[in-house]
Design a protein that fits this description.
Elements lengths: L4 E4 L6 E2 L1 H14 L7 H5 L6 H11 L6 H15 L5 E2 L3 H10 L3 E5 L4 H10 L8 E3 L12 H10 L6 E5 L2 H9 L4 E4 L15 E3 L5 H5 L5
Parallel strand pairs: 1-4, 1-6, 4-5, 6-7, 7-8
Antiparallel strand pairs: 2-3
Length: 219
């Protein structure tokens, strides 16, 4: 492969944000008198944006709180703690350096709010690798709507065949498939079903495998 543009999902792909998300989910639940959730259970709820994460948490605890109010409460907690426990997965920065050195443009496409996404990337020293960060509130649509990828392709003047989406979940795979963009799965992420059931051109164990896959000259 020799893509001109590689687009990355954020949570579960570039970063392990589950610890901070779980803390904020449980702080929100506590505010409504509900019991906390184990981090691993919260991890399986990630991937479809903040509102869906909150809804799943309320449902899991049979909490009768208004979802809109609960989402606002969650965001208050997460705004103050989004970078406390979140880390980049091993090998991320080295892979980004190699792709950039090979002349490949990089972008992020996430369902997380754009402002928080940029702040997390900045706190991890990764923001300068990306020419653009698209969040769940950047456009009128979000993943799995293919228009979010198509908007990025248009912005970079790159066709689907010359691009690549790197993600970790069924949502990412569906988005890529709908946009006719090749998809690479990072197996360390927040997918809900078996890896074998997620359609992709490659399923990688680590970021060290990505540069040789997309740019053999960088290996």
């Amino acid at each position: 492969m020799s893509p001109a543009l590689v687009i990355f999902d954020l949570d579960g792909t570039l970063i392990d944000s589950a610890p901070d998300l779980a803390v904020s989910v449980n702080a929100m639940l506590a505010g409504f008198g509900c019991e906390p959730l184990p981090q691993e259970q919260v991890r399986r709820m990630i991937g479809d944006g903040v509102a869906m994460l909150v809804t799943r948490a309320l449902t899991a605890r049979r909490c009768s709180a208004d979802p809109a109010q609960a989402t606002q409460a969650f965001m208050r907690h997460y705004e103050s703690g989004a970078t406390s426990l979140t880390t980049a997965f091993p090998g991320v920065e080295a892979a980004l350096q190699a792709l950039r050195a090979a002349g490949i443009a990089l972008a992020v496409c996430t369902n997380k709010p754009a402002r928080i996404s940029a702040r997390i990337l900045g706190s991890l020293g990764l923001e300068h690798y990306f020419a653009r960060v698209i969040g769940g509130d950047s456009l009128p649509f979000r993943k799995p709507d293919p228009r979010v990828l198509l908007a990025l392709l248009e912005a970079f003047d790159v066709g689907p065949a010359r691009s690549l989406l790197v993600g970790d979940s069924e949502v990412d795979a569906a988005t890529a498939r709908s946009a006719d963009v090749p998809f690479v799965l990072m197996k360390h992420g927040y997918h809900r079903g078996p890896v074998a059931d997620i359609r992709c051109i490659a399923a990688l164990e680590s970021f060290a495998e990505l540069p040789p896959l997309v740019s053999p000259a960088s290996a």
